[in-house]
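Tutorial sheet, problem 5. The two components below are modelled jointly, 488 residues in total.
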Amino acid sequence: MSSSSAASGRDDRDGTAGGRPPMREALVAAAFRLFLERGYEQTTVDDIVALAGVGRRSFFRYFPSKEDVVFPDHERCLADMTAFLAASGEEHEPLARVCDAARLVMRLYTENPAFSVQRYRLTKQVPGLRAYELSVVWRYERAFAEYLRGRFAGRPDGTLRADVIAAAVVAAHNNALRSWLRSDGEGDASDAVDRALGYVQSAFGEPAPAPPAETPEDVVVVVSRRGAPLWRVVQEIESTLARD
Amino acid sequence: MSSSSAASGRDDRDGTAGGRPPMREALVAAAFRLFLERGYEQTTVDDIVALAGVGRRSFFRYFPSKEDVVFPDHERCLADMTAFLAASGEEHEPLARVCDAARLVMRLYTENPAFSVQRYRLTKQVPGLRAYELSVVWRYERAFAEYLRGRFAGRPDGTLRADVIAAAVVAAHNNALRSWLRSDGEGDASDAVDRALGYVQSAFGEPAPAPPAETPEDVVVVVSRRGAPLWRVVQEIESTLARD
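Model answer (structure tokens):
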């Protein structure tokens, strides 16, 4: 606590300091070092700001609560993703577009594997963080669903399709991402996520447009029991050919 | 607060009283009356026990927290559902079984429409209850996923399929149930849930077992351009028939 008041005095100085890692990054780094050393519950915001050498006000300028420092990039990612979906046009196949949006989340994790793995372990241990993560996941799912509802407007059961597909995309993405996190960030998360999303696309994807049907004039199909006498088969062919 | 200490004195007496609605029901009824009158945040556990005429200890005997009184039946329902899935055999098609398990949750809502609609409105207004509900939904989804993972063990991408299908079932169920709750419990929730689950089954259901293929001896199929001369068609049939 005494270190906290000492740190408070340095608040403004840090706010204007340049040439070293941004204060926000320093706070995240300090927080995770303490979470890993002492445990999440045992670490206070005062401890974090003392280690980072900044004041409490600086912490709360960036993070509304201690939980938020564990997920420092999701607000930005949600905003990016929402903007990405809002920038979609009619030319984008809706499900493929949502899968691309999910890949933005994946990249948030894969651009810093060590941090992502640390956070995954932490989140598994702390029920409060698990609840926080569920609310983050829910917000991604709603962003997907809102986009799809817009694209499916006017279709029968449009909101149902939108909600189900959004949930399936999130579940597939998270299945692949969590496997990667459990393996300590080894292997190619991108391949795994692609395969997982491919499964959803195979279940819900629009069927590829059918090749133009051959015109009925082109082909005669005769199905006949092999035991049928040849004359019957020929008669059938003749009568079919004669039909126009 | 004074009413709370008065109520505490009645704790043991109420615990053994018979012949009126069970104390648990009385606590739920009192809680909802106050939540609707004053708002959820403005109602304390002391207020609830005072109105119900019981003591604090009675409340906490049934409900670990104020949030739990809002969802008084989910623990039982989760237990019932887990038991239902655990009692499944190889004869149950896994996806159909999970859909039946989801219907158990629906019935929890439809057996008391007025209460369910009240709670739906309350949950929409109170962020803390929304978070609680997300964690309940997550537990249902995990129960479905665990069951499906068991059934899909050994299949390629078994856990992926299990997680995605579990999420899709939950989303479909909730889409239909929420429509029903938004319409103040009018109409047939059961039909809506059936249709929603039917959509998931159409996306992920096992294809019906193919009818036994006709033995190759039975049928000859000839595909021919309609423009082909008849003699070429007959020649083709003859050579096919001669092939064994």
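Marking note: The CA atoms of residues 225 and 233 of chain A lie 9 Å apart. Full credit if you identified this.
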